[in-house]
Predict the structure of RNA helicase.
Amino acid sequence: MKIHQTEGDGDILAFLTGQEEVETVVSLLIEQARALGRTGMKRHLRILPMYAGLPSFEQMKVFERVSRSVRKVIVATNVAETSITISGVVYVIDCGFMKLRAYNPRTAIECLVVVPVSQASANQRAGRGGRSRSGKCYRLYTEEAFDKLPQSTVPEMQRSNLAPVILQLKALGIDNVLRFHFMSPPPAQSMVQALELLYALGGLDKDCRLTEPLGMRIAEFPLNPMFAKMLLESGNFGCSQEILSIAAMMQIQNIFVVPPNQKSQAIRAHRKFAVEEGDHLTMLNVYEAFIKHNKNSQWCQEHFLNYKGLVRAATVREQLKKLLVKFQVPKKSSEGDPDPVLRCIVSGFFANAARFHSTGAYRTIRDDHELHIHPASVLYAEKPPRWVIYNEVIQTSKYYMRDVTAIESAWLLELAPHFYQQGTHLSLKAKRAKVQDQ
């Protein structure tokens, strides 16, 4: 707001870390802009968010021309760092942080973490302003802090879950992946964890060779191997139709749209789809309702749903369906029975299980790591289920599980006896796989 009141013409681009932070700041700025407008200030502000999961029609607003009496303020994640160029930006505000996907081999958790930007990213952000004329970059950190930043961002290969990479290398005939010459060599522990997971999923045998047919089939899916295993098992559980929809929906970010000025209406609309079992079946309800209403964009708008995202989910579902047909997975529906669907999800995501602890948090079974249900989950405000599985973890002030579903602990013993063993009457213990890459 100080820039708006004291600086000359030109739009403002502010870099923040993630969607939630962007939406919070947008709401605050809208209120401040209204208050400023009541003082009689001639120039008005148009506050716009920009992040990867934003519906495309909302993203396009940042490129629209405005009158000379209006200044655009674009509040963005690092998607605006390299992916797009917005003309008219003269002033850049850099918070100095970014959100990255990172894998911790010690805890076997892959999560989104907030980390300081690199010097290369900071310079890239500064370069977003002043394309048409000289501009200014306001860095919310000192020059000394800038000098201490890493020169460049850690390569993705060194901070990712390597299971998909290893699968592809194995499918290409590269047996000894531990001796493979990566351009950015990943940590050895990450390699071992990935091999253990693939072995637990049945994709690799004890000699770390692709199993046939399961391992070869998992490698053909353009998905996390846990999703692939879940899909391939869906015929055995009699719910391939439902699992196809769930898997497709889980590939799309931000299905639920929450406009800052219509938050309460959006939350009420979203509750219509919520079920007590958790987020996976809630997403299934959303997709089935979308199909029932003939993929209608107006219906999506009325229910505060991301139309483009749902259309994309339908496309992904068709692609996955072709693979299931290729592998002769039976086309079956559970006919509204949730148990087969939940058990099938566990068959793929058993490694992502957590139990409720007396402290009020959840603990992972494998490494006893503390997790919390994300506020966006339908389970957040409900009585905590004793056992849950989750799709991914994000790290802010805490480690939060996203896409969470309640399960029975007996399912873990039944569906993954090679991974879990009975502990006390209150817990399970994870088994450690011993595999040897040839």
